[in-house]
Amino acid sequence: MSTDNAVEVRCVVEGGLGRVTLNRPRAINALTTGMIRDIAAALAVWEHDDAVRAVLVEGAGERGLCAGADIRALHASARARDGLAEEFLREEYHLNARLRRYTKPVVAFMDGIVMGGGVGLSAHTAVRVVTERSRVGMPETDIGFLPDVGGTYLLSRTPGLLGAHAALTAARLGAADALLCGLADHYVTGDRLPGLAEAIAGGADPASAAAEAAVASGEPAGGVLEEARPWIDDCYDASTVAEVLERLRTRPEAAARRAAEEIEAKSPTSLAVTLRALNEARALADLEDCLNREYRITRALLETPDFLEGVRAAVIDKDRAPKWSPSALADVTAEEVEAFFAPRGPELGLAAPRPQ
């Protein structure tokens, strides 16, 4: 099968490999609804094609796999209240769940920038490969939003409370820290990716081939979270962001105090909602349960002034000076946070396979 949309995404079969190449390099392959639909359509065909033994997800260009959703488009939809943003999220979350449950191995090359929706396309796959160029993160609190696309599932299951730290600070993780957090499986240097893809297309088992390439690549450098585990686990073991900040400010480590400064710059509403969502996600059984919950929360967040303001400051005007409303954590009430978790309109309705 070959469907070639030169603007957004290419889906082709090479040997036994179904190859999905996100193809908006100038936008760091930011996702559109059309791209989500094209990928879902290719997966539907390949799942029943005996010639396709595995699937590869990769990004065109030199900058990265995917910078996330097309935030400008979501911002425009949220302003217009036309429902297109909600439609995008619904189809995106269904694709995230499908990738996790796909009946054939899916390999993701998490090379370069992999943020937000890019994590949703890659971190739920069977074989996740990072490189020396990888920068992996769920930075949605930067724009008054929530780590979605299953981000609450992934970040609530990191060792200790590394996920809470990454979410609240909007951290960008290098290869070593992405591996430590369970967001990736193998470190392979970028120059070995073409050979790895060729081996899989030729019939090699994807997991074994990635493991062999990882052995040849050696260990990634630059991890910082392992050493920070003691203060991170202590400071983020809290039910409120205010308590997290109080603990961070009193730690002797300079990195802890920098984390407090980073958190204080985010939307108070987004922070409060994100911490509660992460704390509750630990008790949810499956990715689908978390996605169902995220769909409620993100639709509510789209209606807040902070999402519009966050995107304006980060992406549109780029002044990096958002004016949050409310501007202080103390002004975000428990009742206001609770409202983000309440049912609202049609549910996502994802159901995970249950043991018989």
Q: Give the strand line-up of the largest sheet.
A: 1-2-3-4-6-8-10
CATH topology: 2-enoyl-CoA Hydratase, Chain A, domain 1
Number of strands: 10
Look at the structure and name the CATH superfamily: 2-enoyl-CoA Hydratase, Chain A, domain 1
**CATH class category label:** Alpha Beta
N to C succession of SSEs: EEEHEEHHEEHEEHHHEHHHHHHHHH
Give unreliable regions as ranges. Answer: 1-5
Rg calc: 20 Å
**How many domains?**
1
Chain oligomer state: single chain
Q: Based on the coordinates given, report the CATH architecture.
A: Alpha-Beta Complex
Helix content: 40-55%
Number of helices: 16
Largest sheet: 7 strands, mixed
How far apart are the first and last residues' alpha carbons, in Å? 35 Å
Q: Quick one: overall form?
A: globular
Structural class: alpha/beta
Report strand %.
5-15%
* Chain-averaged pLDDT: 96
What keywords describe this structure?
2-enoyl-CoA Hydratase, Chain A, domain 1, disordered N terminus, about 350 residues, 10 strands, 3-stranded parallel β-sheet, 7-stranded mixed β-sheet, alpha/beta
Structure description:
The protein is of the alpha/beta class. The protein has one domain: 2-enoyl-CoA Hydratase, Chain A, domain 1 (Alpha-Beta Complex), CATH 3.90.226. 47% of the residues lie in helices and 12% in strands. The protein has helices at 33-46, 71-80, 84-101, 117-122, 151-155, 162-169, 175-180, 193-201, 206-217, 225-235, 241-250, 254-264, 268-281, 287-302, 305-316, 334-340; strands at residues 2-5, 9-14, 17-22, 54-59, 64-66, 106-110, 113-115, 127-130, 135-137, 186-187. The strands form 2 sheets. It has a 7-stranded mixed β-sheet with strand order 1-2-3-4-6-8-10, sandwiched between helices. β1 (2-5) and β2 form a beta hairpin. α1 runs parallel beside α3 (84-101), α2 packs antiparallel against α15 (305-316) and α11 (241-250) runs antiparallel to α12. The chain is globular and about 60 Å long. The two termini are 35 Å apart.
